[in-house]
Amino acid sequence: MGRIMKETKGRILFQCMNYTILTICMIVALYPVLYVLAASLSSYAFLAQGKVGIIPMGFNLEAYKRVLAYPMIGRSYLNTVTYTVAGTAISLLMSTLGAYPLSRKHFPGRDFLTKVVVIAMLFSAGMIPTFLVVRGLGLYNTVWAILLPTAVSSFNLIILKNFFEQIPVEMEESAALDGCNHLQTLLIIILPLAIPGLVTIGLFYAVYQWNSYFPAMLYLRDRKLVPIQIILRDIVIQNQTNDLAIDMANGADQVSESIKYATIMVATIPIMLVYPFVQKYFIKGVMIGSVKG
After folding, report:
1. Would you give the DSSP letter of residue 187?
2. 28: how many CB neighbours lie within 10 A of its CB?
3. H helix and E strand count, the chain
4. Inter-residue contact 171 to 194 (CB < 8 Å)
5. DSSP structure string for 42-59
6. Whole-number Å distance between alpha carbons of 157 and 146
């Protein structure tokens, strides 16, 4: 009885420590988001005086109006959505077609190819060789330069491979006895059971595509093709706000800071809203796909 009480007290202490640490992590992660949101909705006078915390001061939507009125915002937003949806679909397709064979123990050359994938995860060719390959293939300044070079992540492929290995091989054998070939087994048996893993990896790919801006800087010269992250970079880092507001003499400098925060929120909120819809799959997918059975 005393041992049970001791274990119970230890478990309670462990849970209290967990909740404390997780609460601190939540505050650390949530505070910058709330501050940026409040700053984007606040009057410049309060922002300049440093009075803005997580609650807007002098509620003002002028920054959002000017950001949304910027000619490139709509086009770049559409580009980002296109790159995210198409890129995630292509990445999931290629990762699935790569991970499933590597998860089958009878696949010829399985160990060698797995080692190749692991080596590719640790070492990359570098920026210049990749640029030369993209240009040599005729992908430069096209949407394919954004979608194809980063289509498969070795890390995600290994996670998905480990997830497929958790599915009992007996189910595949039963499908084979019913006359299914490998493709039919994958589509009918494996993929429905692997939805948590696919959603998890899909979320990883979607977040990467949404936040990606460096490939666009390297491979795109047509401003009509750039994602919203490039516009965000121009505004936040290079402080190019003249096109968003009126002349400096009329007070454009007084809204430039608010415009930066508003642009960050405009570019961040959509991808944040995706997570609640995939949370249940995400948690299960990470827990199962991250361990090798």
Report:
1. I
2. 9
3. 15, 0
4. no
5. S-HHHHHTT--SSS-SS-
6. 19
> What's the burial of 254, exposed, middle or buried (CB within 10 Å: 0-12/13-18/19+)?
middle
Strands (E), the chain: none
Q: Which two tokens stand for residue 290?
A: 């991250």
Q: Which long-range CB contacts under 8 A does 285-288 form with residues at least 24 apart?
A: 285/163, 285/196, 285/197, 285/198, 285/199, 285/200, 285/201, 286/200, 288/163, 288/166, 288/196, 288/197
Closest CA to 147 of 223, 219, 75, 76: 219
Q: Which two tokens stand for residue 119?
A: 């080596």
* Total Cβ atoms within 10 A of residue 5: 9
User: Per residue in 101-119, pLDDT tens?
Assistant: 888 888 888 888 888 888 8
Provide Rg for the chain, Cα atoms.
Answer: 24
Structural element, H or E, at residue 191: helix 191-193
219 touches 145 (CB < 8 A): yes
Q: What is the pLDDT of residues 70-81, one digit of tens each?
A: 777 788 888 999
Q: Can you spell out the DSSP letters for 124-185?
A: ---HHHHHHHHHHTT-TTSTHHHHSTTS--HHHHHHHHHHHHTS-HHHHHHHHHTT--HHHH
Average model confidence (pLDDT) for the chain? 79
Residues 282 and 276: beta-carbon distance below 8 Å: no
Note if the pTM is more than 0.85. no
Residue 12, CA atoms < 13 Å, CB-side half-sphere: 6
Residues in the chain, overall count: 293
Residue 111, classed as helix, strand or coil, is: helix
Q: Tell me the residue type at 133.
A: V
